Amino acid sequence: MSTTSTNWKLILSYNGSRFHGWQVQPGFTTVQGVLSEAIERLTGERVLPQGSGRTDAGVHAFAQVATFELNAPVPPANLQRALNRILPDSIRVLTAESVPPSFHARHSARSKTYEYRIFERRTRPRPGEPAIERICSPFLSPFVWDCRWPLDLAPMQEAAALLIGTLDFTSMAATNPDRATRDAEDDASDGSPRSLKVNPVKTIFSSEWSRRLLQTGTLASGTLSSEPLTSAFGPSPADTLLVYRITGTGFLHHMVRNIVGTLVDIGRGSLNVADLQRILDARDRTAAGPTAPARGLYLVEVHYDRADPSNPQSGCPALDAQSPAGQGRSAGPAANPSEARR
Predict the structure, then answer these.
(1) Among 12, 94, 125, 190, which one has the highest count of C-beta atoms within 10 angstroms of its own C-beta?
(2) Which residues on adjacent β-strands are paired with residue 80?
(3) Region 143-166: what's the mean pLDDT?
Protein backbone atom coordinates (compact mmCIF):
# COMPACT_ATOMS: atom_id res chain seq x y z
CA MET A 1 0.00 0.00 0.00
CA SER A 2 1.36 3.40 -0.98
CA THR A 3 2.21 5.83 1.82
CA THR A 4 -0.06 8.38 0.14
CA SER A 5 -3.01 6.07 -0.46
CA THR A 6 -6.06 5.53 1.74
CA ASN A 7 -7.63 2.19 2.54
CA TRP A 8 -11.41 2.50 2.18
CA LYS A 9 -14.18 0.39 3.64
CA LEU A 10 -17.68 0.48 2.14
CA ILE A 11 -20.81 -1.21 3.40
CA LEU A 12 -23.07 -1.98 0.45
CA SER A 13 -26.66 -3.08 0.04
CA TYR A 14 -27.78 -4.51 -3.28
CA ASN A 15 -30.59 -6.25 -5.08
CA GLY A 16 -28.83 -9.22 -6.64
CA SER A 17 -31.58 -9.92 -9.19
CA ARG A 18 -29.86 -7.85 -11.88
CA PHE A 19 -26.33 -9.14 -11.32
CA HIS A 20 -24.39 -12.27 -12.15
CA GLY A 21 -23.02 -12.39 -8.63
CA TRP A 22 -20.37 -10.29 -6.89
CA GLN A 23 -17.16 -11.27 -8.69
CA VAL A 24 -16.07 -9.73 -12.00
CA GLN A 25 -16.70 -12.13 -14.89
CA PRO A 26 -16.09 -11.40 -18.58
CA GLY A 27 -19.32 -10.71 -20.45
CA PHE A 28 -21.48 -10.46 -17.31
CA THR A 29 -22.72 -7.57 -15.16
CA THR A 30 -21.52 -8.08 -11.60
CA VAL A 31 -21.61 -5.99 -8.42
CA GLN A 32 -17.82 -5.86 -8.15
CA GLY A 33 -17.49 -4.80 -11.78
CA VAL A 34 -20.12 -2.07 -11.58
CA LEU A 35 -18.62 -0.72 -8.34
CA SER A 36 -15.13 -0.71 -9.86
CA GLU A 37 -16.38 1.24 -12.87
CA ALA A 38 -18.15 3.77 -10.62
CA ILE A 39 -14.97 4.35 -8.58
CA GLU A 40 -12.92 4.86 -11.76
CA ARG A 41 -15.47 7.28 -13.17
CA LEU A 42 -15.35 9.27 -9.94
CA THR A 43 -11.60 9.27 -9.20
CA GLY A 44 -9.90 8.22 -12.42
CA GLU A 45 -8.30 5.30 -10.55
CA ARG A 46 -8.89 1.70 -11.64
CA VAL A 47 -9.27 -0.50 -8.56
CA LEU A 48 -10.87 -3.88 -7.90
CA PRO A 49 -12.84 -3.67 -4.62
CA GLN A 50 -12.38 -6.76 -2.46
CA GLY A 51 -15.63 -8.05 -0.97
CA SER A 52 -16.10 -10.00 2.25
CA GLY A 53 -17.25 -12.89 0.06
CA ARG A 54 -18.65 -13.79 -3.34
CA THR A 55 -22.42 -13.78 -3.47
CA ASP A 56 -23.82 -15.85 -6.34
CA ALA A 57 -26.02 -14.65 -9.19
CA GLY A 58 -29.38 -13.55 -7.82
CA VAL A 59 -28.27 -13.41 -4.17
CA HIS A 60 -28.93 -10.15 -2.31
CA ALA A 61 -26.99 -8.28 0.38
CA PHE A 62 -28.06 -6.00 3.20
CA ALA A 63 -24.48 -5.30 4.30
CA GLN A 64 -21.71 -6.53 2.01
CA VAL A 65 -18.32 -5.11 3.01
CA ALA A 66 -15.77 -4.01 0.40
CA THR A 67 -12.28 -2.55 0.73
CA PHE A 68 -9.94 -0.86 -1.76
CA GLU A 69 -7.15 1.71 -1.90
CA LEU A 70 -7.31 5.17 -3.44
CA ASN A 71 -4.66 7.84 -3.93
CA ALA A 72 -7.23 10.60 -4.45
CA PRO A 73 -8.07 12.50 -1.24
CA VAL A 74 -11.84 12.29 -0.88
CA PRO A 75 -13.88 13.10 2.26
CA PRO A 76 -15.89 10.01 3.30
CA ALA A 77 -19.27 11.73 3.02
CA ASN A 78 -18.42 12.95 -0.48
CA LEU A 79 -17.30 9.48 -1.58
CA GLN A 80 -20.53 7.90 -0.37
CA ARG A 81 -22.72 10.56 -1.92
CA ALA A 82 -20.90 10.60 -5.26
CA LEU A 83 -20.89 6.81 -5.62
CA ASN A 84 -24.61 6.63 -4.92
CA ARG A 85 -25.18 9.17 -7.70
CA ILE A 86 -23.18 7.07 -10.18
CA LEU A 87 -24.23 3.56 -9.17
CA PRO A 88 -27.52 2.04 -10.39
CA ASP A 89 -30.37 2.17 -7.90
CA SER A 90 -29.96 -1.57 -7.29
CA ILE A 91 -26.70 -0.85 -5.40
CA ARG A 92 -26.46 1.59 -2.49
CA VAL A 93 -23.41 2.60 -0.45
CA LEU A 94 -24.63 2.70 3.15
CA THR A 95 -21.35 3.89 4.72
CA ALA A 96 -17.88 4.89 3.56
CA GLU A 97 -14.90 5.26 5.88
CA SER A 98 -11.11 5.16 5.85
CA VAL A 99 -9.62 2.25 7.77
CA PRO A 100 -6.13 1.08 8.81
CA PRO A 101 -3.99 -0.42 6.02
CA SER A 102 -4.19 -3.87 7.65
CA PHE A 103 -7.98 -4.09 7.39
CA HIS A 104 -9.29 -6.31 4.58
CA ALA A 105 -12.96 -6.99 3.91
CA ARG A 106 -12.44 -10.74 3.53
CA HIS A 107 -9.29 -11.62 5.45
CA SER A 108 -10.28 -9.60 8.54
CA ALA A 109 -13.77 -11.13 8.75
CA ARG A 110 -14.46 -13.44 11.68
CA SER A 111 -17.96 -14.64 10.84
CA LYS A 112 -21.01 -13.91 8.70
CA THR A 113 -24.77 -14.00 9.04
CA TYR A 114 -27.03 -15.09 6.19
CA GLU A 115 -30.79 -15.11 6.00
CA TYR A 116 -33.07 -17.10 3.72
CA ARG A 117 -36.72 -16.09 3.12
CA ILE A 118 -39.52 -18.39 2.05
CA PHE A 119 -43.06 -17.51 1.01
CA GLU A 120 -45.29 -20.44 2.00
CA ARG A 121 -47.72 -20.78 -0.88
CA ARG A 122 -49.76 -23.40 0.96
CA THR A 123 -50.24 -23.11 4.72
CA ARG A 124 -52.25 -25.09 7.25
CA PRO A 125 -54.21 -23.13 9.89
CA ARG A 126 -53.85 -26.14 12.20
CA PRO A 127 -51.87 -29.40 11.89
CA GLY A 128 -53.88 -31.93 9.91
CA GLU A 129 -56.25 -29.36 8.39
CA PRO A 130 -56.43 -28.73 4.61
CA ALA A 131 -53.84 -26.31 3.29
CA ILE A 132 -54.88 -22.78 2.29
CA GLU A 133 -53.53 -21.52 -1.04
CA ARG A 134 -51.85 -18.09 -1.08
CA ILE A 135 -50.59 -15.94 -3.95
CA CYS A 136 -47.09 -14.48 -3.83
CA SER A 137 -47.09 -10.82 -4.86
CA PRO A 138 -45.07 -10.05 -8.02
CA PHE A 139 -43.38 -7.31 -5.98
CA LEU A 140 -42.23 -9.91 -3.46
CA SER A 141 -41.46 -12.95 -5.63
CA PRO A 142 -37.99 -11.75 -6.82
CA PHE A 143 -36.87 -11.71 -3.17
CA VAL A 144 -38.21 -15.00 -1.77
CA TRP A 145 -38.60 -18.68 -2.57
CA ASP A 146 -42.26 -19.15 -3.50
CA CYS A 147 -42.43 -22.63 -1.98
CA ARG A 148 -45.34 -24.77 -3.12
CA TRP A 149 -45.34 -27.31 -0.26
CA PRO A 150 -47.02 -26.96 3.15
CA LEU A 151 -44.19 -26.91 5.71
CA ASP A 152 -44.11 -28.11 9.30
CA LEU A 153 -41.90 -25.67 11.20
CA ALA A 154 -41.28 -27.82 14.29
CA PRO A 155 -39.07 -30.51 12.66
CA MET A 156 -37.31 -27.85 10.57
CA GLN A 157 -36.39 -25.99 13.75
CA GLU A 158 -35.26 -29.20 15.43
CA ALA A 159 -33.04 -30.10 12.48
CA ALA A 160 -31.63 -26.57 12.20
CA ALA A 161 -30.38 -26.77 15.80
CA LEU A 162 -28.38 -29.92 14.93
CA LEU A 163 -26.18 -27.82 12.64
CA ILE A 164 -24.77 -25.73 15.49
CA GLY A 165 -21.17 -26.60 16.28
CA THR A 166 -18.02 -27.48 14.33
CA LEU A 167 -19.01 -29.93 11.62
CA ASP A 168 -17.99 -31.28 8.23
CA PHE A 169 -20.38 -29.76 5.65
CA THR A 170 -19.14 -31.63 2.57
CA SER A 171 -22.69 -32.88 1.92
CA MET A 172 -23.91 -29.26 1.79
CA ALA A 173 -21.27 -27.99 -0.65
CA ALA A 174 -21.67 -27.57 -4.40
CA THR A 175 -19.63 -30.02 -6.45
CA ASN A 176 -17.76 -27.54 -8.64
CA PRO A 177 -13.99 -28.21 -8.93
CA ASP A 178 -13.21 -24.82 -10.52
CA ARG A 179 -15.10 -22.96 -7.81
CA ALA A 180 -13.47 -25.10 -5.12
CA THR A 181 -10.03 -24.06 -6.34
CA ARG A 182 -10.97 -20.36 -6.25
CA ASP A 183 -12.50 -20.79 -2.80
CA ALA A 184 -9.31 -22.41 -1.53
CA GLU A 185 -7.32 -19.42 -2.75
CA ASP A 186 -9.66 -17.09 -0.85
CA ASP A 187 -9.13 -19.05 2.37
CA ALA A 188 -5.56 -17.78 2.68
CA SER A 189 -5.41 -14.78 5.00
CA ASP A 190 -2.30 -13.47 3.26
CA GLY A 191 -3.84 -13.75 -0.20
CA SER A 192 -1.75 -16.77 -1.29
CA PRO A 193 -3.19 -20.25 -1.80
CA ARG A 194 -2.91 -22.60 1.18
CA SER A 195 -4.27 -25.61 -0.64
CA LEU A 196 -6.22 -26.56 -3.71
CA LYS A 197 -8.77 -28.22 -1.43
CA VAL A 198 -11.32 -26.27 0.61
CA ASN A 199 -11.65 -27.14 4.28
CA PRO A 200 -15.25 -28.43 4.61
CA VAL A 201 -15.20 -28.11 8.40
CA LYS A 202 -17.03 -24.98 9.50
CA THR A 203 -18.21 -23.66 12.86
CA ILE A 204 -21.85 -22.59 13.07
CA PHE A 205 -22.85 -20.37 16.00
CA SER A 206 -26.59 -20.11 15.37
CA SER A 207 -29.09 -21.80 13.06
CA GLU A 208 -32.80 -21.19 13.46
CA TRP A 209 -36.16 -20.68 11.77
CA SER A 210 -38.92 -18.21 12.56
CA ARG A 211 -42.13 -16.94 10.99
CA ARG A 212 -42.15 -13.18 10.64
CA LEU A 213 -44.59 -10.57 9.47
CA LEU A 214 -43.79 -8.25 6.62
CA GLN A 215 -44.23 -4.70 7.87
CA THR A 216 -47.26 -2.87 6.50
CA GLY A 217 -46.78 -1.50 3.00
CA THR A 218 -43.35 -3.04 2.45
CA LEU A 219 -44.06 -5.99 0.17
CA ALA A 220 -41.70 -4.60 -2.45
CA SER A 221 -38.81 -4.01 -0.05
CA GLY A 222 -39.37 -7.18 1.94
CA THR A 223 -38.78 -5.47 5.30
CA LEU A 224 -39.61 -7.83 8.15
CA SER A 225 -40.79 -7.32 11.69
CA SER A 226 -37.96 -7.89 14.14
CA GLU A 227 -40.17 -10.08 16.29
CA PRO A 228 -41.07 -13.66 15.28
CA LEU A 229 -44.66 -14.84 15.60
CA THR A 230 -45.27 -16.47 18.97
CA SER A 231 -47.02 -19.53 17.57
CA ALA A 232 -45.65 -21.78 14.85
CA PHE A 233 -49.08 -23.24 14.16
CA GLY A 234 -51.38 -20.22 14.41
CA PRO A 235 -53.21 -18.77 11.38
CA SER A 236 -50.62 -17.59 8.90
CA PRO A 237 -51.31 -13.98 7.77
CA ALA A 238 -51.00 -13.14 4.06
CA ASP A 239 -47.87 -11.07 4.70
CA THR A 240 -45.91 -13.74 6.61
CA LEU A 241 -42.56 -15.18 5.58
CA LEU A 242 -40.66 -18.18 6.89
CA VAL A 243 -37.11 -17.04 7.67
CA TYR A 244 -33.96 -19.08 8.23
CA ARG A 245 -30.97 -17.32 9.81
CA ILE A 246 -27.49 -18.80 10.18
CA THR A 247 -24.21 -17.39 11.54
CA GLY A 248 -20.87 -19.11 11.15
CA THR A 249 -17.13 -18.70 10.57
CA GLY A 250 -17.37 -19.71 6.95
CA PHE A 251 -19.66 -21.09 4.27
CA LEU A 252 -18.92 -23.37 1.35
CA HIS A 253 -20.23 -22.66 -2.14
CA HIS A 254 -24.04 -23.06 -2.09
CA MET A 255 -23.84 -24.26 1.52
CA VAL A 256 -26.66 -22.11 2.92
CA ARG A 257 -28.95 -22.82 -0.05
CA ASN A 258 -28.28 -26.56 0.20
CA ILE A 259 -28.98 -26.51 3.94
CA VAL A 260 -32.28 -24.70 3.29
CA GLY A 261 -33.26 -27.17 0.57
CA THR A 262 -32.57 -30.07 2.94
CA LEU A 263 -34.47 -28.49 5.85
CA VAL A 264 -37.42 -27.79 3.55
CA ASP A 265 -37.45 -31.48 2.58
CA ILE A 266 -37.70 -32.23 6.31
CA GLY A 267 -40.49 -29.67 6.71
CA ARG A 268 -42.55 -31.16 3.88
CA GLY A 269 -42.05 -34.71 5.15
CA SER A 270 -39.83 -36.23 2.47
CA LEU A 271 -36.99 -36.47 5.02
CA ASN A 272 -36.97 -36.99 8.79
CA VAL A 273 -34.96 -35.04 11.36
CA ALA A 274 -32.91 -38.19 12.01
CA ASP A 275 -31.87 -38.21 8.35
CA LEU A 276 -29.82 -35.03 8.79
CA GLN A 277 -27.03 -36.78 10.71
CA ARG A 278 -26.92 -39.51 8.06
CA ILE A 279 -26.63 -36.84 5.36
CA LEU A 280 -23.75 -35.07 7.14
CA ASP A 281 -21.95 -38.36 7.81
CA ALA A 282 -22.21 -39.34 4.14
CA ARG A 283 -19.99 -36.40 3.09
CA ASP A 284 -21.71 -36.64 -0.27
CA ARG A 285 -23.67 -33.83 -1.94
CA THR A 286 -26.11 -36.31 -3.50
CA ALA A 287 -27.26 -37.40 -0.02
CA ALA A 288 -28.69 -33.96 0.81
CA GLY A 289 -31.74 -32.08 -0.45
CA PRO A 290 -32.01 -29.75 -3.46
CA THR A 291 -30.39 -26.33 -3.75
CA ALA A 292 -32.85 -23.59 -2.75
CA PRO A 293 -33.28 -20.76 -5.31
CA ALA A 294 -30.75 -17.92 -5.09
CA ARG A 295 -33.39 -15.17 -4.89
CA GLY A 296 -34.33 -15.99 -1.27
CA LEU A 297 -30.78 -15.61 0.11
CA TYR A 298 -29.37 -12.47 1.78
CA LEU A 299 -25.98 -11.61 3.22
CA VAL A 300 -27.14 -9.87 6.39
CA GLU A 301 -23.95 -8.94 8.24
CA VAL A 302 -20.19 -9.48 8.32
CA HIS A 303 -18.65 -9.65 11.79
CA TYR A 304 -15.16 -8.45 12.60
CA ASP A 305 -12.99 -8.61 15.71
CA ARG A 306 -14.18 -6.32 18.51
CA ALA A 307 -10.67 -4.92 18.75
CA ASP A 308 -10.69 -3.89 15.08
CA PRO A 309 -10.61 -0.06 15.08
CA SER A 310 -12.55 0.03 11.82
CA ASN A 311 -15.50 -1.79 13.33
CA PRO A 312 -15.72 -1.10 17.08
CA GLN A 313 -19.36 -2.11 17.41
CA SER A 314 -19.13 -5.47 15.68
CA GLY A 315 -18.55 -8.56 17.78
CA CYS A 316 -17.70 -12.04 16.72
CA PRO A 317 -19.82 -14.82 18.21
CA ALA A 318 -16.66 -16.91 18.46
CA LEU A 319 -15.40 -14.56 21.15
CA ASP A 320 -18.48 -14.89 23.33
CA ALA A 321 -18.15 -17.29 26.25
CA GLN A 322 -21.84 -18.17 26.00
CA SER A 323 -21.72 -18.86 22.27
CA PRO A 324 -23.77 -21.90 21.26
CA ALA A 325 -20.72 -23.11 19.38
CA GLY A 326 -19.09 -23.83 22.68
CA GLN A 327 -21.81 -26.36 23.35
CA GLY A 328 -21.94 -27.80 19.83
CA ARG A 329 -20.61 -31.05 18.44
CA SER A 330 -17.23 -31.34 16.80
CA ALA A 331 -16.33 -33.05 13.56
CA GLY A 332 -12.65 -32.24 13.29
CA PRO A 333 -10.28 -29.29 13.66
CA ALA A 334 -11.87 -25.89 14.11
CA ALA A 335 -12.36 -23.87 10.97
CA ASN A 336 -9.93 -21.03 10.40
CA PRO A 337 -11.51 -17.67 11.37
CA SER A 338 -10.41 -16.19 8.04
CA GLU A 339 -12.81 -18.57 6.27
CA ALA A 340 -15.73 -16.19 6.67
CA ARG A 341 -17.33 -17.11 3.41
CA ARG A 342 -20.57 -18.23 1.82
Answers:
(1) 12
(2) none
(3) 95
